[in-house]
Amino acid sequence: MERDVVIGIDGGGTSTRVMICDLKGNELAYAEGGCASKYKDENASDHVKATIEDALAKAGRVATDVAMLVAGIAGYESEADDAWIIPFTDLPGLHCPKLHLNDSDIAHAGALQNRPGIIAIAGTGTMIMGINEYGRRIRNSDYHQYAYSAARHLAYDAVYEVLAGLRDDSNEGLITEMLQYLQVSSLEQLQELARQGFHPDTMKRNQLFGQFAPQVTRAAEQGSSVARRVCNRAAEQLRLGIELVGSNFAQRNVEVALIGSVICSPYMSGKLTELLMANPIKQYRVVETQLQPVVGAILLAYKELGIPTNKR
């Protein structure tokens, strides 16, 4: 049977997205599944495989129809990770060429459609990655710089600020939501819960806090001094990471695409754009993300097969 479809996979810290397209650029199926990060979910590999099977079923196709698979998986850094990443896409009959990448690689391919530029990701996780005009790939982590701007970071910091007493009347709404969310009735009880470490399981604790981030970014927009301090610190770290990566570009004008629930929230995106515009050396231009990461994986699959994508 002719191998006439490609599979693109966006495996993030929250969910797995799988798209199947034919070789002419037509979408045949799309499916979503559970978390794809082995560092956040011990069943990550099963989630990815189940989502691939779901997409194939929706497309009315079988594994032997697949000509190329590209998977961007959170936590994958290099070929040294092949030992754990290969089983993620190891399905019966799925013996086509496979390209495993970090999820930031497919995000860049989708957001900027392989143009030089920078993507800044802040959602479940955080990452800043650029590809300059010479095709060189640079990440903020290459410098051992980490922007503490993921969802859980904002929530932890907001709770710490409140517990430290750095609050005023502008924070009443945020504190009320915080107490309700963490199922305590007073700041004293919150203090006791914090002293006990909130939750004994690190993964579940991070998931718990990560889900509170939307309340923090919304409170910042509404004027909470605590939420604004937390968001401003995160924006400053993102700004520094973007400018570190940007220092590798020869051109003065650099496009920046924002990806993720935290960085795309109104307050965070506005604050970060303001900080980047103040740079005296380069002109950073925040642009709309053109295509979703899973589509970026499809574009890279076509590229691997030598299929032009400029008209797709």
List the helices and strands and how they pair.
Layout: E1 5-11, E2 16-22, E3 27-33, H1 44-59, E4 66-73, H2 82-85, E5 98-101, H3 103-112, E6 117-122, E7 126-131, E8 137-139, H4 151-163, H5 172-181, H6 187-195, H7 202-210, H8 213-221, H9 225-246, E9 253-259, H10 266-277, E10 283-287, H11 293-305
Parallel strand pairs: 1-4, 4-5, 6-9, 9-10
Antiparallel strand pairs: 1-2, 2-3, 6-7, 7-8
Helix pairs in contact: 3-11, 4-7, 4-8, 4-9, 8-9, 9-10
CATH superfamily of the largest domain: ATPase, nucleotide binding domain
Name of the CATH first level of the largest domain: Alpha Beta
Number of domains: 2
- Identify low-pLDDT runs: none
Assembly state of the chains shown: single chain
Radius of gyration: 21 Å
- Sheet with the most strands: spatial strand order: 3-2-1-4-5
